[in-house]
Amino acid sequence: MRDYQMREVTSAIKSWQKQGKAIAIATIVKVEGTPLRPLGSKMVVTSDKQIAGSITGGCIEGGIYEEAQTVIKSCQPKLLHFGLLNDESPWEIGLSCGSSIDVFIEPLDSPVWKEIYPVLETSLSKNQLMAIGTILSGAKLGSKLVVWPNGDVHGSLGSQVLDKQAVEWMKQQLLVQGSSSMTFDEAGAQVEVFVDVITTPARLVIVGAVHIAIPLVSMAKILGFHTIVIDPRSAFATRERFPHVDELVTEWPSTALEKLRPDECTYIAVLSHDDKLDNPALQVALASPARYVGILGTHKNIPKRLNELRDLGVTEEQLSRLHAPIGLKLGAIQPEEIALSVLAEIVAAKHGLSKIQENPVKSTFSH
Fold this sequence. Notes:
Helix content is 35%, strand content 23%. By secondary structure, the chain is of the alpha/beta class. The protein has helices at residues 3-18, 61-74, 111-125, 160-176, 213-222, 253-260, 275-287, 302-311, 316-319, 335-350, 360-365, and strands spanning 23-32, 42-46, 51-53, 78-82, 100-107, 130-135, 144-147, 153-155, 180-186, 189-198, 203-207, 226-230, 247-249, 266-270, 292-295, 322-323. The protein is elongated and about 65 Å long. It contains 11 helices and 16 strands. The strands form 3 sheets. A 6-stranded parallel β-sheet has the order 13-12-11-14-15-16, sandwiched between helices. A hairpin with a 2-residue loop joins strand 9 (180-186) and strand 10.
């Protein structure tokens, strides 16, 4: 589950708990067909008809709400199936899209959640990547195990043998940052475990506090990005111009990027259109494992920029990663339109669709 989605849910939980409300949390643990929402998507429900989060965007939320009331009253978790199978169960007709999903509903008043929830809140506050394993079948239904990339573990699935198997698999899921299910054998019994990987916030680093950057920050915040604007020109990099940005850095871009240590969850948009700012920043960005690097420009001036980067020692392999000119081809003219095209390309890269638009660097300048 994405960090910003979990934060939406935990924010509601925190408010409701202060009011003493009973709460159930519903999680998508299995999907067949084309999902409306990804694995790990959550919805929280109170006994007095309040809802936060989303499972499908509307088509089965009513059914989940009703089942959540039962879970709250019984304080027992429940696994439900929603789909279009030939079955007389009313939950088999919940989805009209041809897909099917399994939803696990749990009471937050259960001993398991009372133990795990403070740990979850602490990890979220520290922006830590984590994986939460939950048993979906058998006598230990609902038992949880939390694993962090450094190998730390909290909780238990009920036995040392199962914990050992699950921890190794959960570490692999942390590497790929993907939620999934796995069935383990324990003393001859099949035990299904769902692992929900809570990712760290994706970072959007913008080099250049230019006009385009203003709407780009606002749009990116809506999508849950942690936004950083870098520009040594303090007259441009101001809170008045960027009231919504998470971080304003008034340092030389290449120096600031080195300090930020871009990783696989970092997306870099170089927008200043000033060679002395852009080129050193691109040199650092392209040498990093950043998931996306793009630069503002035109097809006419990109060849000159690429040759300048080559002179700085940037390799052809590194240049092949550069999205130049930045953004999808939307015919954008206004700053807000250009920002939209940039963010659209970043979202495509985030979901593994970076080749949605032909990369002119690869097609024209690769050797």
